[in-house]
What does this fold into?
Amino acid sequence: MGIILKSPAEIELMREAGRINALALWEMAKAVRPGVTTHELDCIAAEVLRKHGATPAFLNYPNREFPEKPYPAVINASINAELVHGIPGKRRLREGDIISLDCGTIYRGFVGDSAITLPVGRISAQARQLLGVTSEALRIGVAACRAGTHMGDVSFAIQSFVEGKGYRVAREYTGHGVGREMHEEPDVPNWGHPDRGPLLKPGMTFALEPMVMVGSEELYIKNNHWTVATVDGQLCAHFEHTIAVTENGPFILTRWEDEWKI
Ligand code: MG
Ligand code: MG
It folds into this structure.
């Protein structure tokens, strides 16, 4: 299929999908506190999407290895040592947890995909630093998405920043092209080499998603066939934006109002 470039009109539609997705994250973020269940957060996101005439991109997403286990919820809620694809349920958040909330929205045929990792009440200094490094890695990655550079430059920018802070990036899980499908070409790895990989061009749209580990980058998939967690049980974090490469630089499609500026 190759990399599908989007027209300015299509990017506008993707911005709408991204805006709704950002709002779902925002509404969940306001509800994150000790005692809330991840299912309650899932319901909040479902309601935001429904109210805006959008549908969830994750619900019933096929599981490549276990076709009988499609994804059963609207969001991924991944706590502490869980990196991505945590399934919402009865688990209650506790003071000191960190939780990655990842949501995907389909609106008028296009997908928005973004994630944030949040503190639950007071968290350790280590956890706070991890969240700071991971969100900064995303900001640095987005800033590197300029037409005429290679994907490897973006990956390298993320990796070298994260490793320079003494953390590790996930190897087996990557960002991805986004458009009419949630997963399109190209892959957007969090590690790589300058001047390698696809050349970035205006009209490319993809999700950047730094996944950062305090300890080893070794991961495993839990018995629910979805949730990815660190083998050593140490903390990890995940931030994500869907962006468009434009003539004028990177444009964040899943930005919310009072977020940092590039
Ligand atoms: Mg995502
Ligand atoms: Mg993604």
